[in-house]
Amino acid sequence: MGGCFSKPKPVELKIEVVLPEKDRGKEELSAGGKGSPRAYQGNGAARHFHAEERLPAPHPYPGAQDCVEAAVCHIKDLENGQMREVELGWGKVLLVKDNGEFHALGHKCPHYGAPLVKGVLSRGRVRCPWHGACFNISTGDLEDFPGLDSLHKFQVKIEKEKVYVRASKQALQLQRRTKVMATCISPSAGHSGSTNVLIVGAGAAGLVCAETLRQEGFSDRIVLCTLDRHLPYDRPKLSKSLDAQPEQLALRPKEFFRAHGIEVLTEAQVATVDVRNKKAVFKDGFKLEYSKLLLAPGSSPRTLSCKGKDVENVLTIRTPEDANRAARLARGRSAVVVGAGFLGMEVAAYLTEKAHSVSVVELEETPFRRFLGERVGRALMKMFENNRVKFYMQTEVSELRAQEGKLKEVVLKSSKVVRADVCVVGIGAVPATGFLRQSGISLDSRGFIPVNKMMQTSIPGVFAAGDAVTFPLACRNNRKVNVPHWQMAHAQGRVAAQNMLAQEAEISTVPYLWTAMFGKSLRYAGYGEGFDDVIIQGDLDELKFVAFYTKGDEVISVASMNYDPIVSKVAEVLASGRTIRKREVELFVLPSKTGDMSWLTGKGS
Predict the structure, then answer these.
(1) Among residues 63, 114, 72, 62, which one has the least CA distance to residue 97?
(2) Strand, coil or helix: what is 486?
Protein backbone atom coordinates (compact mmCIF):
# COMPACT_ATOMS: atom_id res chain seq x y z
CA MET A 1 0.00 0.00 0.00
CA GLY A 2 1.06 3.60 -0.60
CA GLY A 3 0.81 6.40 1.92
CA CYS A 4 -2.98 6.54 1.55
CA PHE A 5 -4.73 4.58 4.26
CA SER A 6 -8.29 5.86 4.44
CA LYS A 7 -11.28 4.74 2.42
CA PRO A 8 -13.06 7.63 0.68
CA LYS A 9 -16.16 8.56 2.67
CA PRO A 10 -19.28 10.51 1.79
CA VAL A 11 -18.62 14.20 2.37
CA GLU A 12 -20.03 15.11 5.75
CA LEU A 13 -19.57 18.30 7.67
CA LYS A 14 -18.50 17.83 11.26
CA ILE A 15 -18.84 21.01 13.27
CA GLU A 16 -16.85 21.66 16.41
CA VAL A 17 -16.57 24.93 18.25
CA VAL A 18 -12.99 26.02 18.83
CA LEU A 19 -12.24 29.28 20.57
CA PRO A 20 -9.99 31.52 18.49
CA GLU A 21 -6.36 31.03 19.48
CA LYS A 22 -3.91 33.82 18.82
CA ASP A 23 -1.12 31.28 18.88
CA ARG A 24 -2.56 28.92 16.28
CA GLY A 25 -0.18 30.04 13.54
CA LYS A 26 2.97 29.95 15.64
CA GLU A 27 4.79 26.83 14.69
CA GLU A 28 5.94 25.38 17.98
CA LEU A 29 2.91 26.42 20.01
CA SER A 30 -0.55 24.97 20.32
CA ALA A 31 -1.32 21.53 18.95
CA GLY A 32 -4.75 19.99 19.15
CA GLY A 33 -7.79 21.33 20.92
CA LYS A 34 -7.86 22.72 24.43
CA GLY A 35 -9.53 20.75 27.15
CA SER A 36 -9.08 20.33 30.85
CA PRO A 37 -8.32 16.70 31.56
CA ARG A 38 -9.15 15.57 35.04
CA ALA A 39 -7.51 12.70 36.80
CA TYR A 40 -9.68 9.62 37.13
CA GLN A 41 -9.29 7.48 40.18
CA GLY A 42 -7.25 4.32 39.65
CA ASN A 43 -9.51 1.91 41.53
CA GLY A 44 -11.76 -0.50 39.72
CA ALA A 45 -14.88 0.67 37.91
CA ALA A 46 -14.80 4.23 39.27
CA ARG A 47 -12.27 5.16 36.64
CA HIS A 48 -14.53 4.51 33.66
CA PHE A 49 -16.19 7.11 31.49
CA HIS A 50 -19.89 6.62 30.96
CA ALA A 51 -20.82 6.14 27.35
CA GLU A 52 -24.24 7.80 27.94
CA GLU A 53 -22.69 11.23 28.48
CA ARG A 54 -22.92 12.51 24.93
CA LEU A 55 -22.03 15.77 23.25
CA PRO A 56 -24.91 17.62 21.56
CA ALA A 57 -25.30 16.46 17.96
CA PRO A 58 -23.51 18.53 15.30
CA HIS A 59 -25.54 21.10 13.38
CA PRO A 60 -27.21 19.88 10.20
CA TYR A 61 -25.65 20.80 6.87
CA PRO A 62 -25.43 24.61 6.78
CA GLY A 63 -28.02 26.59 4.84
CA ALA A 64 -27.35 29.25 2.23
CA GLN A 65 -27.05 32.02 4.82
CA ASP A 66 -24.16 30.15 6.46
CA CYS A 67 -22.24 29.89 3.18
CA VAL A 68 -20.08 32.23 1.19
CA GLU A 69 -19.32 31.95 -2.52
CA ALA A 70 -16.83 33.94 -4.58
CA ALA A 71 -14.94 33.93 -7.87
CA VAL A 72 -11.31 33.42 -6.82
CA CYS A 73 -9.38 33.35 -10.13
CA HIS A 74 -9.44 32.77 -13.87
CA ILE A 75 -8.98 29.13 -14.93
CA LYS A 76 -5.68 30.04 -16.63
CA ASP A 77 -4.24 31.68 -13.49
CA LEU A 78 -3.04 28.32 -12.16
CA GLU A 79 -0.88 25.77 -13.94
CA ASN A 80 -1.20 22.08 -13.21
CA GLY A 81 0.63 21.27 -9.98
CA GLN A 82 0.23 24.81 -8.60
CA MET A 83 -1.34 25.91 -5.31
CA ARG A 84 -2.58 29.32 -4.25
CA GLU A 85 -4.17 30.80 -1.12
CA VAL A 86 -7.40 32.63 -2.02
CA GLU A 87 -9.56 34.87 0.18
CA LEU A 88 -13.30 34.23 0.59
CA GLY A 89 -14.05 37.10 2.98
CA TRP A 90 -14.66 34.80 5.98
CA GLY A 91 -11.30 33.15 5.66
CA LYS A 92 -8.72 31.78 3.26
CA VAL A 93 -8.86 28.62 1.20
CA LEU A 94 -6.11 26.58 -0.46
CA LEU A 95 -6.84 26.31 -4.18
CA VAL A 96 -5.05 23.44 -5.93
CA LYS A 97 -4.89 22.60 -9.64
CA ASP A 98 -3.96 18.99 -10.33
CA ASN A 99 -4.47 17.06 -13.59
CA GLY A 100 -6.61 19.88 -14.97
CA GLU A 101 -8.97 19.80 -11.99
CA PHE A 102 -9.40 22.42 -9.26
CA HIS A 103 -9.74 21.50 -5.57
CA ALA A 104 -10.38 23.81 -2.62
CA LEU A 105 -9.32 22.86 0.92
CA GLY A 106 -8.53 24.35 4.32
CA HIS A 107 -5.30 26.36 3.98
CA LYS A 108 -3.65 25.64 7.34
CA CYS A 109 -2.31 22.34 8.62
CA PRO A 110 -4.49 21.41 11.64
CA HIS A 111 -1.40 20.15 13.52
CA TYR A 112 0.40 23.46 14.23
CA GLY A 113 -1.14 25.84 11.68
CA ALA A 114 1.49 25.71 8.90
CA PRO A 115 0.54 27.43 5.60
CA LEU A 116 -0.01 24.48 3.25
CA VAL A 117 0.55 26.66 0.15
CA LYS A 118 4.25 26.45 1.06
CA GLY A 119 4.07 22.65 1.19
CA VAL A 120 4.57 19.99 -1.47
CA LEU A 121 1.91 18.82 -3.94
CA SER A 122 2.49 15.28 -5.21
CA ARG A 123 0.50 12.15 -6.05
CA GLY A 124 -2.87 13.72 -5.25
CA ARG A 125 -1.94 15.00 -1.83
CA VAL A 126 -0.38 18.05 -0.22
CA ARG A 127 2.38 17.58 2.38
CA CYS A 128 2.84 20.12 5.20
CA PRO A 129 6.14 22.07 4.94
CA TRP A 130 6.75 22.04 8.71
CA HIS A 131 6.13 18.52 10.03
CA GLY A 132 5.22 16.41 6.99
CA ALA A 133 1.49 15.66 7.51
CA CYS A 134 -0.27 14.75 4.22
CA PHE A 135 -3.81 15.57 3.09
CA ASN A 136 -5.74 14.09 0.17
CA ILE A 137 -6.67 16.95 -2.18
CA SER A 138 -9.90 15.23 -3.31
CA THR A 139 -11.29 14.62 0.20
CA GLY A 140 -9.20 16.73 2.61
CA ASP A 141 -8.57 13.55 4.62
CA LEU A 142 -5.39 13.21 6.66
CA GLU A 143 -3.29 10.46 5.06
CA ASP A 144 0.02 10.78 6.87
CA PHE A 145 0.91 12.28 10.20
CA PRO A 146 1.47 14.07 12.66
CA GLY A 147 -1.82 15.53 13.90
CA LEU A 148 -5.31 14.11 14.31
CA ASP A 149 -7.63 16.20 12.17
CA SER A 150 -8.36 16.50 8.45
CA LEU A 151 -9.02 19.55 6.26
CA HIS A 152 -12.39 20.84 5.17
CA LYS A 153 -13.07 20.30 1.46
CA PHE A 154 -15.00 23.05 -0.32
CA GLN A 155 -17.16 23.08 -3.46
CA VAL A 156 -15.57 24.34 -6.68
CA LYS A 157 -17.39 25.25 -9.90
CA ILE A 158 -16.18 26.74 -13.19
CA GLU A 159 -18.39 29.32 -14.90
CA LYS A 160 -17.35 31.50 -17.87
CA GLU A 161 -13.69 30.51 -17.32
CA LYS A 162 -13.82 31.71 -13.72
CA VAL A 163 -13.21 29.49 -10.71
CA TYR A 164 -15.81 29.83 -7.93
CA VAL A 165 -15.43 28.41 -4.43
CA ARG A 166 -18.37 27.91 -2.07
CA ALA A 167 -17.75 27.25 1.62
CA SER A 168 -19.47 27.28 4.98
CA LYS A 169 -18.40 30.29 7.07
CA GLN A 170 -17.97 28.07 10.11
CA ALA A 171 -15.67 25.64 8.27
CA LEU A 172 -13.58 28.58 7.00
CA GLN A 173 -13.02 29.77 10.55
CA LEU A 174 -12.38 26.32 12.07
CA GLN A 175 -9.61 25.23 9.66
CA ARG A 176 -9.92 21.63 10.88
CA ARG A 177 -12.32 18.75 10.43
CA THR A 178 -12.62 15.85 12.83
CA LYS A 179 -13.64 12.77 10.89
CA VAL A 180 -17.07 11.35 11.60
CA MET A 181 -16.84 8.53 14.16
CA ALA A 182 -19.05 5.63 15.15
CA THR A 183 -20.86 5.69 18.47
CA CYS A 184 -20.06 3.05 21.08
CA ILE A 185 -23.14 0.81 21.38
CA SER A 186 -21.83 -1.43 24.17
CA PRO A 187 -21.49 0.83 27.22
CA SER A 188 -19.34 -0.46 30.06
CA ALA A 189 -22.13 -0.82 32.61
CA GLY A 190 -22.66 -4.43 33.66
CA HIS A 191 -19.57 -5.95 32.06
CA SER A 192 -16.74 -3.73 33.25
CA GLY A 193 -14.45 -6.77 33.43
CA SER A 194 -14.21 -7.16 29.65
CA THR A 195 -13.61 -4.97 26.63
CA ASN A 196 -13.41 -5.59 22.93
CA VAL A 197 -10.23 -3.56 22.43
CA LEU A 198 -7.68 -2.79 25.14
CA ILE A 199 -4.97 -0.25 24.37
CA VAL A 200 -2.03 -0.07 26.77
CA GLY A 201 -0.46 3.39 26.52
CA ALA A 202 -2.19 6.68 25.67
CA GLY A 203 0.45 8.45 23.59
CA ALA A 204 0.05 9.17 19.88
CA ALA A 205 -0.06 5.47 18.90
CA GLY A 206 -2.77 4.57 21.43
CA LEU A 207 -4.94 7.60 20.71
CA VAL A 208 -4.73 7.28 16.91
CA CYS A 209 -5.56 3.57 17.17
CA ALA A 210 -8.72 4.35 19.19
CA GLU A 211 -9.78 7.19 16.87
CA THR A 212 -9.15 5.13 13.72
CA LEU A 213 -11.31 2.27 15.04
CA ARG A 214 -14.19 4.71 15.58
CA GLN A 215 -13.62 6.42 12.19
CA GLU A 216 -13.79 3.03 10.49
CA GLY A 217 -17.18 2.29 12.06
CA PHE A 218 -16.11 0.12 15.03
CA SER A 219 -18.80 0.48 17.71
CA ASP A 220 -17.71 -1.94 20.44
CA ARG A 221 -16.00 -1.06 23.69
CA ILE A 222 -12.51 0.56 23.62
CA VAL A 223 -10.47 1.03 26.79
CA LEU A 224 -7.29 3.11 26.71
CA CYS A 225 -5.10 2.89 29.82
CA THR A 226 -2.16 5.06 30.81
CA LEU A 227 0.32 5.46 33.67
CA ASP A 228 -0.18 9.20 33.35
CA ARG A 229 -2.68 11.15 35.39
CA HIS A 230 -3.71 13.03 32.21
CA LEU A 231 -5.68 12.34 29.08
CA PRO A 232 -3.47 11.99 25.93
CA TYR A 233 -1.21 15.03 25.47
CA ASP A 234 1.45 16.46 23.14
CA ARG A 235 4.53 14.91 24.75
CA PRO A 236 7.20 16.28 22.32
CA LYS A 237 6.22 19.75 23.47
CA LEU A 238 7.29 19.06 27.07
CA SER A 239 11.00 19.61 26.42
CA LYS A 240 10.37 22.57 24.07
CA SER A 241 8.08 24.41 26.48
CA LEU A 242 8.75 23.25 30.05
CA ASP A 243 6.18 25.58 31.61
CA ALA A 244 3.27 24.26 29.50
CA GLN A 245 0.28 23.18 31.60
CA PRO A 246 -1.48 19.84 31.00
CA GLU A 247 -4.63 21.52 29.67
CA GLN A 248 -2.55 23.40 27.07
CA LEU A 249 -0.98 20.13 25.95
CA ALA A 250 -4.19 18.06 25.67
CA LEU A 251 -4.63 16.48 22.24
CA ARG A 252 -8.41 16.20 22.71
CA PRO A 253 -10.73 17.70 25.35
CA LYS A 254 -12.31 15.26 27.78
CA GLU A 255 -15.72 15.77 26.11
CA PHE A 256 -14.28 14.17 22.97
CA PHE A 257 -13.58 10.87 24.75
CA ARG A 258 -17.09 10.85 26.25
CA ALA A 259 -18.76 11.65 22.93
CA HIS A 260 -16.98 8.84 21.11
CA GLY A 261 -17.13 6.26 23.89
CA ILE A 262 -13.35 5.94 24.30
CA GLU A 263 -12.81 5.08 27.96
CA VAL A 264 -9.56 6.26 29.49
CA LEU A 265 -8.13 4.72 32.64
CA THR A 266 -5.55 7.11 34.06
CA GLU A 267 -2.85 6.17 36.59
CA ALA A 268 -3.49 2.59 35.57
CA GLN A 269 -0.48 0.29 35.42
CA VAL A 270 -0.69 -3.10 33.69
CA ALA A 271 1.30 -5.60 35.75
CA THR A 272 0.95 -8.69 33.52
CA VAL A 273 -0.66 -9.79 30.27
CA ASP A 274 -2.03 -13.33 29.95
CA VAL A 275 -2.27 -13.91 26.19
CA ARG A 276 -3.69 -17.42 26.49
CA ASN A 277 -6.75 -16.20 28.41
CA LYS A 278 -6.70 -12.73 26.79
CA LYS A 279 -6.55 -10.91 30.08
CA ALA A 280 -4.62 -7.94 31.47
CA VAL A 281 -4.03 -7.70 35.21
CA PHE A 282 -3.46 -4.23 36.65
CA LYS A 283 -1.17 -3.39 39.55
CA ASP A 284 -4.17 -2.71 41.80
CA GLY A 285 -5.60 -6.19 41.05
CA PHE A 286 -8.23 -5.00 38.53
CA LYS A 287 -8.56 -7.57 35.70
CA LEU A 288 -9.72 -6.80 32.18
CA GLU A 289 -10.45 -9.33 29.44
CA TYR A 290 -9.96 -8.23 25.83
CA SER A 291 -10.40 -9.68 22.37
CA LYS A 292 -7.86 -7.40 20.61
CA LEU A 293 -4.87 -5.78 22.30
CA LEU A 294 -2.58 -2.90 21.31
CA LEU A 295 0.67 -2.53 23.24
CA ALA A 296 1.92 1.06 23.01
CA PRO A 297 3.67 1.53 26.37
CA GLY A 298 6.37 3.89 25.05
CA SER A 299 9.66 4.14 26.87
CA SER A 300 11.14 5.08 30.24
CA PRO A 301 13.94 7.64 30.52
CA ARG A 302 17.41 6.30 31.32
CA THR A 303 18.79 7.53 34.62
CA LEU A 304 22.33 8.17 35.85
CA SER A 305 24.04 5.35 37.72
CA CYS A 306 26.82 7.41 39.35
CA LYS A 307 27.45 8.23 43.00
CA GLY A 308 24.75 10.54 44.40
CA LYS A 309 22.20 9.66 41.69
CA ASP A 310 19.33 9.88 44.21
CA VAL A 311 20.11 13.41 45.31
CA GLU A 312 17.12 15.78 45.24
CA ASN A 313 16.59 18.02 42.17
CA VAL A 314 18.07 15.53 39.68
CA LEU A 315 15.28 14.67 37.25
CA THR A 316 14.27 13.13 33.93
CA ILE A 317 11.42 14.54 31.84
CA ARG A 318 8.50 12.26 31.08
CA THR A 319 5.36 14.13 32.29
CA PRO A 320 4.10 17.74 32.46
CA GLU A 321 4.82 17.63 36.21
CA ASP A 322 8.49 16.75 35.53
CA ALA A 323 8.80 19.55 32.98
CA ASN A 324 7.11 22.14 35.19
CA ARG A 325 9.32 21.14 38.12
CA ALA A 326 12.51 21.51 36.05
CA ALA A 327 11.45 25.02 34.94
CA ARG A 328 10.56 26.02 38.52
CA LEU A 329 13.83 24.75 40.02
CA ALA A 330 15.96 26.38 37.29
CA ARG A 331 14.48 29.86 37.57
CA GLY A 332 17.36 32.23 38.37
CA ARG A 333 19.58 29.28 39.37
CA SER A 334 22.32 27.11 37.84
CA ALA A 335 21.07 24.29 35.59
CA VAL A 336 23.06 21.36 34.21
CA VAL A 337 21.70 19.21 31.38
CA VAL A 338 23.25 15.77 30.86
CA GLY A 339 22.96 14.60 27.23
CA ALA A 340 23.12 16.66 24.02
CA GLY A 341 20.47 14.82 22.02
CA PHE A 342 17.08 16.28 21.08
CA LEU A 343 15.56 16.30 24.56
CA GLY A 344 18.63 17.65 26.32
CA MET A 345 19.27 20.40 23.78
CA GLU A 346 15.61 21.49 23.72
CA VAL A 347 15.61 21.72 27.52
CA ALA A 348 18.91 23.66 27.52
CA ALA A 349 17.55 26.10 24.91
CA TYR A 350 14.35 26.68 26.88
CA LEU A 351 16.18 27.22 30.17
CA THR A 352 18.58 29.89 28.82
CA GLU A 353 15.93 32.56 29.38
CA LYS A 354 14.93 31.26 32.82
CA ALA A 355 18.13 30.08 34.50
CA HIS A 356 21.13 32.06 35.73
CA SER A 357 23.42 29.64 33.87
CA VAL A 358 22.98 26.54 31.67
CA SER A 359 25.67 23.88 31.13
CA VAL A 360 25.49 20.77 28.93
CA VAL A 361 27.51 17.60 29.60
CA GLU A 362 27.94 15.14 26.69
CA LEU A 363 30.05 12.09 25.91
CA GLU A 364 30.39 12.85 22.17
CA GLU A 365 32.48 15.72 20.80
CA THR A 366 29.52 17.59 19.27
CA PRO A 367 25.78 17.67 20.04
CA PHE A 368 23.50 15.50 17.85
CA ARG A 369 26.62 13.90 16.36
CA ARG A 370 25.21 10.46 15.67
CA PHE A 371 22.07 11.92 14.20
CA LEU A 372 23.19 15.00 12.29
CA GLY A 373 26.94 14.48 11.91
CA GLU A 374 29.92 16.56 12.96
CA ARG A 375 29.44 19.70 10.84
CA VAL A 376 25.75 20.29 11.51
CA GLY A 377 26.29 19.44 15.20
CA ARG A 378 29.06 22.03 15.43
CA ALA A 379 26.94 24.74 13.78
CA LEU A 380 24.13 24.10 16.27
CA MET A 381 26.62 24.07 19.14
CA LYS A 382 27.78 27.54 18.07
CA MET A 383 24.18 28.81 18.18
CA PHE A 384 23.91 27.54 21.78
CA GLU A 385 27.23 29.07 22.78
CA ASN A 386 26.02 32.41 21.38
CA ASN A 387 23.10 32.02 23.78
CA ARG A 388 25.37 31.61 26.87
CA VAL A 389 25.24 27.79 27.07
CA LYS A 390 28.49 26.23 28.31
CA PHE A 391 29.47 22.80 26.96
CA TYR A 392 31.51 20.09 28.70
CA MET A 393 32.12 17.61 25.88
CA GLN A 394 33.71 14.14 25.74
CA THR A 395 33.12 13.60 29.43
CA GLU A 396 30.42 12.26 31.73
CA VAL A 397 29.13 12.69 35.27
CA SER A 398 31.09 10.85 37.95
CA GLU A 399 29.30 12.22 41.04
CA LEU A 400 26.37 14.38 42.09
CA ARG A 401 27.12 16.27 45.31
CA ALA A 402 24.47 17.55 47.67
CA GLN A 403 24.26 20.13 50.41
CA GLU A 404 21.51 19.44 52.97
CA GLY A 405 20.13 16.72 50.65
CA LYS A 406 19.77 19.04 47.65
CA LEU A 407 21.98 19.08 44.56
CA LYS A 408 24.87 21.55 44.76
CA GLU A 409 27.57 20.33 42.34
CA VAL A 410 28.03 18.01 39.36
CA VAL A 411 31.47 16.40 39.30
CA LEU A 412 32.71 15.31 35.87
CA LYS A 413 35.10 12.47 34.95
CA SER A 414 37.41 15.18 33.59
CA SER A 415 37.58 16.23 37.29
CA LYS A 416 35.82 19.56 36.58
CA VAL A 417 33.23 20.58 39.17
CA VAL A 418 30.14 22.40 37.85
CA ARG A 419 27.80 24.33 40.17
CA ALA A 420 24.21 23.06 39.82
CA ASP A 421 20.90 23.65 41.60
CA VAL A 422 19.04 21.40 39.19
CA CYS A 423 20.19 18.64 36.82
CA VAL A 424 18.03 17.41 33.93
CA VAL A 425 19.06 14.01 32.55
CA GLY A 426 18.41 13.35 28.85
CA ILE A 427 20.54 10.33 27.99
CA GLY A 428 18.03 8.30 26.05
CA ALA A 429 15.28 5.88 26.98
CA VAL A 430 14.53 2.17 27.22
CA PRO A 431 11.30 0.45 26.08
CA ALA A 432 8.78 0.21 28.95
CA THR A 433 8.11 -3.47 28.32
CA GLY A 434 9.14 -5.09 31.63
CA PHE A 435 5.51 -6.13 32.26
CA LEU A 436 5.63 -8.34 29.13
CA ARG A 437 8.61 -10.48 30.10
CA GLN A 438 6.52 -13.45 31.23
CA SER A 439 3.72 -12.92 28.69
CA GLY A 440 4.93 -15.14 25.85
CA ILE A 441 4.98 -12.12 23.50
CA SER A 442 8.41 -11.99 21.81
CA LEU A 443 10.79 -9.23 22.93
CA ASP A 444 14.25 -8.68 21.46
CA SER A 445 17.48 -8.54 23.49
CA ARG A 446 17.00 -4.79 24.15
CA GLY A 447 13.40 -5.19 25.29
CA PHE A 448 11.73 -3.91 22.08
CA ILE A 449 8.62 -5.64 20.72
CA PRO A 450 9.28 -6.89 17.14
CA VAL A 451 6.27 -6.49 14.83
CA ASN A 452 5.60 -7.16 11.15
CA LYS A 453 4.40 -4.55 8.60
CA MET A 454 0.88 -4.96 9.93
CA MET A 455 2.10 -4.07 13.46
CA GLN A 456 1.31 -7.59 14.68
CA THR A 457 3.45 -9.15 17.40
CA SER A 458 4.37 -12.83 17.63
CA ILE A 459 0.86 -13.48 19.00
CA PRO A 460 -2.18 -13.18 16.66
CA GLY A 461 -4.62 -10.47 17.79
CA VAL A 462 -1.89 -8.68 19.77
CA PHE A 463 -0.54 -5.57 18.04
CA ALA A 464 2.16 -3.13 19.12
CA ALA A 465 3.10 0.41 18.07
CA GLY A 466 5.16 3.45 19.03
CA ASP A 467 8.52 3.90 20.72
CA ALA A 468 8.65 0.34 22.10
CA VAL A 469 8.60 -1.53 18.75
CA THR A 470 10.98 -2.55 15.99
CA PHE A 471 9.33 -2.83 12.57
CA PRO A 472 10.29 -3.25 8.88
CA LEU A 473 11.02 0.23 7.46
CA ALA A 474 9.89 0.40 3.81
CA CYS A 475 12.27 3.21 2.78
CA ARG A 476 15.30 1.21 4.04
CA ASN A 477 14.52 -2.11 2.32
CA ASN A 478 12.38 -3.35 5.21
CA ARG A 479 15.26 -3.30 7.64
CA LYS A 480 13.93 -3.91 11.20
CA VAL A 481 14.38 -0.62 13.05
CA ASN A 482 13.15 1.34 16.06
CA VAL A 483 11.99 4.87 15.18
CA PRO A 484 10.96 6.66 18.39
CA HIS A 485 9.31 9.64 16.69
CA TRP A 486 5.93 11.22 17.35
CA GLN A 487 4.89 11.08 13.69
CA MET A 488 5.78 7.38 13.36
CA ALA A 489 3.77 6.48 16.47
CA HIS A 490 0.66 8.07 14.88
CA ALA A 491 1.15 6.08 11.65
CA GLN A 492 1.69 2.79 13.48
CA GLY A 493 -1.40 3.33 15.66
CA ARG A 494 -3.48 3.77 12.51
CA VAL A 495 -2.09 0.63 10.82
CA ALA A 496 -2.67 -1.44 13.99
CA ALA A 497 -6.32 -0.31 14.13
CA GLN A 498 -6.87 -1.11 10.45
CA ASN A 499 -5.50 -4.61 10.97
CA MET A 500 -7.63 -5.19 14.07
CA LEU A 501 -10.46 -4.68 11.54
CA ALA A 502 -8.79 -7.08 9.07
CA GLN A 503 -8.08 -4.38 6.46
CA GLU A 504 -4.59 -5.72 5.70
CA ALA A 505 -2.86 -2.33 5.92
CA GLU A 506 0.94 -2.10 5.95
CA ILE A 507 3.21 0.53 7.47
CA SER A 508 4.90 2.51 4.70
CA THR A 509 5.40 6.01 6.13
CA VAL A 510 8.74 7.85 5.88
CA PRO A 511 10.08 8.93 9.31
CA TYR A 512 9.77 12.70 9.84
CA LEU A 513 10.76 14.69 12.89
CA TRP A 514 11.51 18.24 13.96
CA THR A 515 13.08 20.17 16.79
CA ALA A 516 12.86 23.83 17.80
CA MET A 517 15.55 25.80 19.64
CA PHE A 518 15.84 29.58 20.08
CA GLY A 519 12.89 30.10 17.73
CA LYS A 520 14.61 28.15 14.92
CA SER A 521 13.34 24.87 13.57
CA LEU A 522 15.26 21.92 12.23
CA ARG A 523 13.38 19.35 10.15
CA TYR A 524 14.49 15.82 9.36
CA ALA A 525 13.15 12.97 7.21
CA GLY A 526 14.32 9.44 6.48
CA TYR A 527 16.38 7.04 8.57
CA GLY A 528 20.02 8.04 8.66
CA GLU A 529 21.62 5.43 10.90
CA GLY A 530 24.90 4.27 9.37
CA PHE A 531 25.38 7.29 7.04
CA ASP A 532 28.93 7.51 5.69
CA ASP A 533 28.87 10.96 4.07
CA VAL A 534 27.03 14.28 4.36
CA ILE A 535 26.48 16.67 1.43
CA ILE A 536 25.64 20.18 2.58
CA GLN A 537 24.17 22.97 0.52
CA GLY A 538 23.65 26.47 1.91
CA ASP A 539 25.33 28.24 4.80
CA LEU A 540 25.89 26.41 8.09
CA ASP A 541 27.07 29.59 9.85
CA GLU A 542 23.82 31.33 8.91
CA LEU A 543 21.84 28.17 9.82
CA LYS A 544 20.27 28.22 6.35
CA PHE A 545 21.14 24.85 4.86
CA VAL A 546 20.06 21.41 3.72
CA ALA A 547 22.16 18.33 4.59
CA PHE A 548 21.80 15.09 2.61
CA TYR A 549 22.96 11.98 4.52
CA THR A 550 24.21 9.22 2.25
CA LYS A 551 25.22 5.59 2.60
CA GLY A 552 27.09 4.22 -0.39
CA ASP A 553 25.32 5.64 -3.44
CA GLU A 554 21.99 6.32 -1.71
CA VAL A 555 20.50 9.31 0.12
CA ILE A 556 19.01 7.83 3.29
CA SER A 557 17.94 10.99 5.14
CA VAL A 558 17.87 14.78 4.98
CA ALA A 559 17.92 17.64 7.50
CA SER A 560 17.33 21.34 6.97
CA MET A 561 17.00 24.72 8.64
CA ASN A 562 15.38 27.72 6.93
CA TYR A 563 15.16 25.74 3.67
CA ASP A 564 11.49 24.75 3.46
CA PRO A 565 9.93 22.74 1.95
CA ILE A 566 12.99 20.64 1.00
CA VAL A 567 12.56 18.05 3.78
CA SER A 568 8.90 17.51 2.87
CA LYS A 569 9.95 17.23 -0.79
CA VAL A 570 12.51 14.52 -0.01
CA ALA A 571 10.00 12.72 2.24
CA GLU A 572 7.50 12.73 -0.62
CA VAL A 573 10.07 11.31 -3.08
CA LEU A 574 11.07 8.56 -0.62
CA ALA A 575 7.39 7.83 0.11
CA SER A 576 6.79 7.30 -3.63
CA GLY A 577 9.35 4.48 -3.52
CA ARG A 578 11.97 6.31 -5.55
CA THR A 579 15.63 6.15 -4.52
CA ILE A 580 17.60 9.39 -4.52
CA ARG A 581 21.20 8.73 -5.64
CA LYS A 582 24.20 10.50 -4.19
CA ARG A 583 25.37 11.51 -7.68
CA GLU A 584 22.00 13.22 -8.35
CA VAL A 585 22.56 15.40 -5.31
CA GLU A 586 26.14 16.16 -6.33
CA LEU A 587 25.10 16.93 -9.92
CA PHE A 588 22.08 19.04 -9.25
CA VAL A 589 22.44 20.45 -5.76
CA LEU A 590 26.03 21.54 -5.43
CA PRO A 591 26.33 23.61 -8.64
CA SER A 592 22.96 25.23 -7.92
CA LYS A 593 23.39 28.21 -5.65
CA THR A 594 19.67 28.95 -5.90
CA GLY A 595 18.73 25.72 -4.19
CA ASP A 596 16.63 24.65 -7.19
CA MET A 597 15.07 21.33 -6.24
CA SER A 598 12.92 20.65 -9.31
CA TRP A 599 15.12 17.62 -10.07
CA LEU A 600 13.72 16.00 -6.93
CA THR A 601 10.18 15.81 -8.25
CA GLY A 602 11.43 13.75 -11.15
CA LYS A 603 11.88 16.50 -13.72
CA GLY A 604 15.65 16.40 -13.53
CA SER A 605 16.59 12.78 -13.15
Answers:
(1) 72
(2) helix
